[in-house]
Amino acid sequence: MLTQQEACDLVLAGFTQTRGAIAACELDPRGQYWVIHANSYEYVVNGRWDHCLVGAGAYLVHVASGRLDVTPSYETWHESIQDIYDRDDAAGAHYVLRPDCAAGDKRAIVHLHQRLGCSLIDARWLLDAANRDWLTGTGRCLRHARAELAKHGIQTQVVLQDDPRQALSLAPPNHFLQDVLKRLRERASLRVDRPHSQDVAP
User: Fold this and answer.
1) Which of 55, 79, 100, 135 is the most buried if burial means most Cβ atoms within 10 Å?
2) How many whole angstroms separate alpha carbon 185 and alpha carbon 58?
3) Strand pairing partners for 97?
4) DSSP string, 25-38
5) Degrees, nearest 5: CA angle 71-97-156
6) Which residues make Cβ contacts (< 8 Å) with residue 198, sequence separation at least 6?
7) 23/17 Cα distance (integer angstroms)
8) Percentage of residues in the chain having pLDDT higher than 90
9) Measured between alpha carbons, how far apart are the two ends of the chain, in Å?
10) Element holding 160 (H helix, E strand)
11) pTM for the full model?
C-alpha cells in the first residue's frame, strides 16, 4: 500500500526534463487512488506561467499496486477516474449497449424505425437476437448514450460481455444523441442482405 509521500515521489520521478513539484494530493472517493496535481517547480512554487507544462491533467496512483495513470487535460479527473473504475470493474470484459426490449417487439421496431430514419427491416434486424450488440466503449460513454436514447423513447441497457461481437465503437466525445443515432444507423448498415431486401411492415 503506497503512502501519500511514496505516491508523490513516484509522480515526481517522471519529471526528467525539468524539476517538478506537487500542487495537491488527495485520495479519490473510493480510497483506491492518490489523485495528484503536479507541474514544473517554477510554475507551482513561483507562479511562472511561462513554465506551465500542458497536456496532463492529474496523476492517479493506485494505492495497492502503484500503477500510474495520467488523465488528459481536456477531462476532469473525476471523469477520468470513473473510466478507470469501470475498467477495473470490467476485469477485461467489454461494455456493450444493447436494446432493452424483446426481439420482434412491434412497437419498438416502429419507434426505432422512426427515430433512426432507417427501414423497418433494418429496425427489426437490430432487435434480432444475433444483432443486439449495438455499441461498445467506456462504461461512462455508453451510460450517457443510454440516457440520451431514453429521452427519445429508445430503451437500452449497458452490459458486460467477454466478446463485443459486431458492436461498433462509440468513443468520447461522440456520445451526443446525433452521434449515437449515426452509429446505430451504421450498425444497421451491416445487414448483409441489404441490397436484396424490400421494406415491409413489422
Assistant:
1) 135
2) 37
3) 135, 158
4) EEE-TTSSEEEEEE
5) 125
6) 121
7) 18
8) 79
9) 59
10) strand 156-161
11) 0.77
pLDDT at 198: 43
What is the reported pLDDT for 155?
A: 96
> Reduced to 3 states, what is the DSSP secondary structure of residue 109?
helix
Annotate 43-94 with DSSP letters as a single string.
HHHH--GGG---SEEEEEEETTT--EEEEETTS-HHHHHHHHHHHHHHTT-E
Q: Are 67 and 61 in contact (CB under 8 A)?
A: yes
* Model confidence band, residue 162 (pLDDT cutoffs 50, 70, 90): very high
pLDDT band at 56 (very low <50, low <70, confident <90, very high): confident
d(CA 49, CA 132): 51
Q: Rg of the chain's alpha carbons, rounded to an integer?
A: 22
Question: Is residue 199 scored above 60 in pLDDT?
Answer: no
Tell whether the model's pLDDT for residue 58 goes beyond 90. Answer: yes
- Specify the amino acid at residue 44: V
Sheet with 135-137, side-by-side order of all strands: 156-161, 94-99, 135-137, 168-169
Helix axes 139-150 and 77-90, enclosed angle (nearest 10): 100
Q: Which amino acid is at 91?
A: A
Q: Tell me the Ramachandran region of residue 101: left when phi exceeds 0, alpha when psi lies from -120 to 50, beta otherwise.
A: beta
Residues, the chain: 202
